From TrEMBL:
The keyword Signal applies. This is PEP-CTERM protein-sorting domain-containing protein. The keyword ATP-binding does not apply. It comes from Nitrosomonas ureae. Residues 1-19 form the signal peptide. Keywords: Signal.
Amino acid sequence: MNKLTLGIVAALFSASANASWSIMDLGESVFATSINDSGQITGSVNVNTEFERAFITDSNGLNIREINSIGSVSLGNEINNSGQILGVYFNGNSWSNFITQQNGNGMVDLPIENANTFEGINDKGQLIVGFIGNNDSQYNNNIIDIVPLPGLDTFARSLNNSGQVVGYYVNEEGRRHAFITGSDGKGIKDIGTFEDKFYKNSIAIDVNESGQTAGVLIREFGFGSQAFITGDDGVGIIRLGTLGGNYSEAIAINDHGQAVGVSGNFNGSGVSSFIYANGGLTDLLGLDVFIGSGWSDIIVTDINNNGQIVGHGNLNNEQHSFLLSFTSDTVFTPQDFYIPPVPEPSTYLMLLAGLGMLGFMARKKQS
């Protein structure tokens, strides 16, 4: 893509001048991963040059507090609306899971067999494990029991308060298909991919209270992807396009159907983040609070129901996390989706040949 095209694409995704946005720098040593509806944030904070510890904040991202860790290193991955945190810690030999009580108090070990991981927690304290069917744990009464598809590897990624679970399974052809369940994990329904011969894989990443799902569609051979959302109960895939590159992924969706995600190119260039609202994408790096402020390469990680987004990026060439907020009267003026073109078969062959040569050179270098 030439510079002129890049300029046109950037203009298409500029933010509305009517938007009321604010940003709070959470600090250089902070990695924010999740936010609840009161604005409590979790993630990890670097307490010295060696160790990172899970943390929780007060409402609206104020007053970062390290959680008393049962391991030397810990990371908070999910936080529910009572402030319970689900995460991982390093016990000196291997990684394990933990859970806290309300407001991040009382971290306790969350053992599970075969190095499986816990992927989500809802406001009822129900849990899901990553690899379905491999969930032998002393916390089985809290784990939503999902019956995997016969003979197929099935992976959970998120759940809502009714116990609807989303994730993906690997079919007989080795392709990934997004799924959603009914309440309390009952019954797996294939969300599908897209009515397009090039998009053969899909992964569901998040789900809101009405069953709207956010995730990513992946092209055959992996050359390109697009963020997607669905309607209620996982019905109907809507492609969201990209911010001008060949890659996008929707990471989180709130109960208003607003989704956030990342976009860029597979070579790592042009990385930015977006919000999907009012029928289109808004490039967050185009907001006044980011322009000229030293921020670049921002990666969003979560959005709540009150217009608050957390993420991280480069601030004056240092890694920082942020809390980005918009008001209820914010007006979004998104533009039409940019749908990246599909390479011709000859282009695929050239790409495959190039990847093969890179692999050969890497093996040669190792030898």
